[in-house]
Specification:
Cofactor: Mg(2+)
Number of helices: 4
Oligomer: single chain
CATH superfamily: HIT-like
Family: Belongs to the HINT family.
Number of strands: 5
CATH topology: HIT family, subunit A
GO molecular function: hydrolase activity; nucleotide binding
Keywords: Hydrolase, Magnesium, Nucleotide-binding
Strand order of the largest sheet: 1-2-3-5-4
Structural class: alpha+beta
Largest sheet: 5 strands, antiparallel
Pfam family, one: HIT
Shape: globular
CATH architecture: 2-Layer Sandwich
Helix content: 25-40%
Number of domains: 1
CATH class: Alpha Beta
Order of helices and strands: HHEEEHEEH
């Protein structure tokens, strides 16, 4: 085990070294309540495979994450909610282990607040970007 994994709070939760309010567990996935929730029912869904960013996780360890987030949204009775997954400090990731948040949004004060700084672009720039990305897929 790498020292990164050894010090990872989510890996410690997976191993059972740190307790959690476990909502779901399978061979590859764990879901539990967030201990610093933004709203009632805020939960985390994580792959048991340690990887810092989404691109570090093998595809077969990702298959359950969104279906479990969906089940959590239904189980909490959230009518409105956010599914959030951050990659890197600049993108607001605080724990270096991939995790998806299921955050109920019961009212304007609770849940996730978002700033959406839209940028203007033009068709030629979008077409060039489209071609660049399409070539790499």
């Amino acid at each position: 085990m790498s020292s990164r994994m050894a010090s990872c709070i989510f890996c410690k939760i997976i191993k059972g070294d740190i307790p959690c309010f476990k909502l779901y567990e399978s061979e590859k996935t764990l879901a539990f309540l967030d201990i610093n929730p933004l709203s009632r029912g805020h939960a985390l869904v994580i792959p048991k495979f340690h990887g810092e960013k989404l691109t570090d996780i093998p595809d077969d360890h990702l298959t359950e994450l969104l279906p479990i987030a969906k089940k959590l949204a239904l189980a909490t009775g959230a009518k409105e909610y956010n599914i959030l997954q951050n990659n890197g400090r600049g993108a607001h990731q605080e724990v270096d282990h991939v995790h998806f948040h299921m955050i109920p949004k019961p009212n304007p004060e609770e849940g996730l607040g978002i700033s959406w700084p839209q940028q203007t672009t033009d068709t030629d720039k979008l077409k060039a970007l489209y071609e660049e990305i399409k070539q790499k897929l």
